[in-house]
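Q: Given only this backbone (175 positions), what sequence would you predict?
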């Protein structure tokens, strides 16, 4: 019975706290602005209930990006795209142009390197903790783990491309 009351309470509190309208891209007190031009609202949610849909969780606040959004971010250079597949997979299947390859097992160590060492080892600029980072892999499983790793290291603006290389290749083939 107490569990039922607690469960109901978790649904009511966010609605009470977030009744006022929050515009996409607006600053939230104590928070930061979101990436402009990307609608971060999960499917089925209204902007005013974004936190309700996200719920109370210890998981990092990642946001999925679509193929179109990833193309925009790459074109505008507003994000660092990190592909967490193994190097042989990039040779075998292909890669997203502009992405930096850091195999999943190296993500934690790589994001703690100095900028020089990072550039030397991975051939790209090291993302800062305030940069927008999009993680990708073959189909979205490993990149989700990389999102959690980055969040544990203090990175804030972390995004996930759940379709991964498979979705990218399909979309590129059709365009």
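A: Predicted residues:
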């Amino acid at each position: 019975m107490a569990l039922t009351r607690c469960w109901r309470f978790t649904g009511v509190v966010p609605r009470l706290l977030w009744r006022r309208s929050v515009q996409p891209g607006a600053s939230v007190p104590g928070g930061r602005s979101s990436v402009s031009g990307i609608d971060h609202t999960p499917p089925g949610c209204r902007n005013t209930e974004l936190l309700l849909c996200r719920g109370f969780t210890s998981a990092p606040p990642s946001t999925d990006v679509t193929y179109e959004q990833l193309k925009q971010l790459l074109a505008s250079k507003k994000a660092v795209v990190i592909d967490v597949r193994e190097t042989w997979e990039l040779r075998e299947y292909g890669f997203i142009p502009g992405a930096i390859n850091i195999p999943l097992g190296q993500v934690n160590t790589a994001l703690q390197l100095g900028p020089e060492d990072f550039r030397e080892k991975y051939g790209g600029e090291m993302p800062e903790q305030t940069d927008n980072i999009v993680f990708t892999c073959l189909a979205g499983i490993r990149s989700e783990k990389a999102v959690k790793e980055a969040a544990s290291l203090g990175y804030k603006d972390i995004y996930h491309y759940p379709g991964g290389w498979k979705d990218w290749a399909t979309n590129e083939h059709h365009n």
